[in-house]
Batch of 3 targets.
Target 1
Amino acid sequence: MGPGDYLAIAAGAVNTIAVSLLTIALGTPLGLGLALIRWRKFPILDGLVAALVSLLRATPSVTLVLLVYFALPTVGLELPRFAAGVATLTLGTMAYNCEIWRATLLAFPIDQLDAARAFGMPRALRFRLIILPQIVRAALPALVNEMTLIIKVSPAVAVIGVIETTRAAVRIGAATYRPIPPFLVALAIYVAVIGGFVATQRMLERRRRVEALA
Amino acid sequence: MIPRGIAVLWEQRDAMLSGLLTTIGIAIVAAICAGVLGLVLFSLLISRVRAIEVTLIRLIDLMRCVPFMLFCYMIYYGLPSVGIVVGNLTAGITALTLYNAAYIAELLRGGYEALPREGIEAGHAFGFHGWRLLVRIILPPVLLSTIPMFGNQMIQIIKDSSFLVIIAVQELTFAANEIQATYYVPFASFVCAMLLYWLLCLGVEAGVRAVLAVAERRR
């Protein structure tokens, strides 16, 4: 492996991180939206969301990315590879995040809401000031876990030709006839990125514990 | 567009069905192998030999940081470079087995950690050691408490098996992609594949519920 090869894998890593971060930024609030629809039990929508989440959770990312990339153009919506990749991973993680948010919403103590209602606090304010800060804290460990899962399925976008870490490593292996060294470099990158997420979560939890003590 | 897709899929139902059966076959074989290997790893993990325990935990943690697709490539290209030549299907099943064995060992360890110590100590007091302690005293409650996690892992195996399309294993996603490429019916073929995956996962979930119901009745 020459210096150019390391650079190629690093460029792949930038794509891995970009795809993952965009997916997290889109999928986390979308999941919360779906969870709120189910929590508030909107008629019809509630059932639709439940079915959609169940279907998406059962769909492999590889199959979904092929569907998004090849089928959307037939209905006149042509997405570039990168956008198709982000859209796919977002759909998948949105479904998982919906379940995470829903679990924390269902565990939310209802008496706090009753108290806020007794003080005449409007619904939007109740959500923003009372529910949201608490469910974010409760959901954080599960959300971070889901974020590491996104990074682990992100190579699926290589199937439609996005050159991310894994794909870059495979190409170098094919060109140099020595597949193992680039794979080890890719492996080190994934360990560092996923390890970074887990370390950030631990730090946030520690800081929160200190805040709770103070 | 969509009615034509359905017609094409109906004509190609044998290809789709064979892909589905391959996916089911791969998932079952990989699940059994990973289950057995996971049990072996778990028994080593609780063997209380410090060196083995530390090494295994490191390896399992490392495995949990590797994307399955990267691991799959590592097995597929890596085995030949150490002189082991296998077919695509064998390489794919090997990758699924090794990868999931680490996760299964970890979920068994989680169940074991949550187990009250008294039962095991009582087993010791009654003269259970080594293999008999593991099989008679430790495993029954650990397996019982981890049934739902096994279900989730099975679903993960089914979903991960779609990655084998990259090493040209002719499973469900491969079949859908072939039909899509030949007849240009991407929407119908991939939606059909998605629905079949959904069916498989709902089947696994129903299976887990049935096993739990039986376990509850037998208690």
Target 2
Amino acid sequence: MRTSVDVKTEILRDHDRIAQGIREGLEARGVAMFNIIGPPGSGKTTFLEALLGRLAAIPSLVIEGDVEGDIDARRLEARGIAALQINTHGGCHLDALMVRGALEKVPPGVRAVFVENVGNLICPAEWFLGETARILLVSVAEGSDKPYKYPLAFQTAGAIVVNKTDLAPHVDFDRDFFLKGATGCSRDAAVFFVSARTGEGMEEVAGWVRARAVRA
Amino acid sequence: MHEASATEAILAIVERKAAECGASRVTAIRLTVGELTGYVGDSIQFYFDRFSRGTVAEGAVVESTYVKPLYQCAACGARFARERYSFSCPTCGGDALPTGIGREFYVESMEIEKE
């Protein structure tokens, strides 16, 4: 006998329940978690170096997500920033199970965890990790059309950070076109223009992070 | 790679439902996929063919129905699908706001065979 049956089940339901469990666990411990999403080369690791240098009063740790290797975690550790490495071995995004495993190794006393996701604007946007907020990092060098091409990443961001403003005179970044797209994706996201390299604008981002880390 | 982990989740849902229904075989699976998610039906089918070998769903056809993202105009309230490289309302030029339509990703139904 052949028959059709209704399923009506969210495909990521089980995964999102795990992520929700992470969020509740972190909230109970007063720990904030930030999911840093951005394309390869947008400056995620440099941004974290600049950011954590301004958050000295908040004990922080970075979970580095990469397809392979621990070059970013070692780089942060060399700067005195505590870091754990996750390798996805080909996977294009971190998922809640990977993050849950890494969180078990976070020492007590840490108040803010920064998860540097795999460099990619597509898949990481789909996978909730239990974060307090998402920080989307792009750079002027990649062009101003990113909100139009990757709307979900912008739609789910709590903060949209445009990095490498020191390169702006050398690239054709249309700030108005970018902002029109970014606000079309989200009216609630805070938008920052920074240079992680020179430190320009970083204090404002640090203030935004501090307000959320202290609340957690 | 985007679809690999999602396909594992689809197979788990299908196998659970098939066991509940006492299905001897699953022949088709219907998905609803919002285009904002970026999931590609052909790619899901590709992984599904591999992951489902030896299961009740081996050989099942995965049919994806796509949902276009809808936006709402902040000024006039009209709902619209946005044009490429624009977040402006086609009626009045106002700013677009996301509605949540276009983020769907679920298993709608499936075709099974029973003894």
Target 3
Amino acid sequence: MSGFGGVLPWARRTLVERDKILTSEEFSAILGICQIVPGPNIVNLAVCIGSRFGGARGAVASVLGLTLGPISIVLLLAVLYEHYSYLDSVKGVLRGISAVGVGLIASTGFKMLKDELRYPAMFIVVIVTILAASYFHLGLGWVVLISSPLALVLAWKKAHSE
Amino acid sequence: MSILISLFLKLSAFSLIAFGGVNALLPVLFNLAVTQEHWIDVQTFSDYFAIAQAAPGPNFMTVTLLGWHVYGVIGALIATLAIAWPSSILIFYLQRLIMGIEDPLKKKSIQYAAAALAIGLVLSSAWQIALQINQSMAAYALTIGTIAIVFFTRWHPLYLIAIGALLGVLGFI
């Protein structure tokens, strides 16, 4: 619920620092896996952590616990939007926020890109993926099919080069 | 009813290719909802995107709002369930498998490969979505400014969203 600007930092603080349910290394390892697998990252994280403590039931419980509150809030906002979206000030606010939102998403990408500077050959994967998705407008399934073999080969080399 | 089934099936399929999370999926969602199915128009899509960014919680809320627009509260729940269940089941079984890989090189390779794929998808997503929802040079300037601030400061994203809202209400964007 208090996940303004992303739930991850908050999840880490609660689970690792406050409740000491997981060590910092365990948290990072789980997070690493959740970012490998497709799908909503935070739901993946909830599944991993929930299932460690309560199997499938724990996974379902932690996903519900994490999502139901925010879903209620966002639906409340949606109702407000229906009533007030005709106002110029509301339109302006949303235009401003969406421009910032795109910037935030791009920054996540650029920050991760910075980590690849250690092994610049990985940039090829990034460029191929961007070209396939944005220039050739291939479907996401095709993009993943084309890029992943290349990604695996280069990642294998990168892992060996360290 | 058929629209609910179509929503559920299409979003479920997207779940398994959403490397980089739902943010990487935004252009595909846009294509589906605006271009193909005409569920919503460009303006509503970008407004929903903004609401999802400003609301607390996970960043898949654009999907929830899309479902809400299509079929009310039931639509919202179906859409959220659809985007989450296939990948949840996948990770439920995969986590032990990946944790169990003994060879650290293999483990690292998988991790690096997925990261590179995610970077490409997230960056192209940001680029394509910017083209759809930024309607003025001022909006692009704000997007670029956001990237710069995130890179050179440690400001909380919420401040940036507040600045965006303020600039918007003053009529600059």
